[in-house]
């Protein structure tokens, strides 16, 4: 939506482990010279940023390790959703924090999102056009403790900004 922004999504190889510690290892592999001096795949230039977009549901202490890894770096950020990424997606359709039975689980959010977005659920081709209202709604409803989102909150609006 902005030609000045070049967004590259880096997923684990073969749909593998997406834990925060595995994401750190993947980033290190991509931005550091190889063991024999090979040029890294990505060279971080001034103004470049790496964003770790994570859920809260499964990672426990690994989230603290990821935050410790990024805290000293101006070019790395964490955008955490509590419980899961679907919290962010719901803000594309509602200006309010969601409250429903089952909201403490990722599956509850997935089911809820399919109820909120009919027919067919979130459409990754069409619904990102609603990002401005999602940013505003998520920011307005954001609640945290120690820079971590509380239940039904997300930091993904920071990445959107």
Automatic annotation (TrEMBL):
InterPro entries: RloB (IPR025591). It comes from the Bacteria. It holds the Pfam family RloB. This is RloB domain-containing protein. It comes from Neolewinella antarctica. The lineage of its organism: Bacteria, Pseudomonadati, Bacteroidota, Saprospiria, Saprospirales.
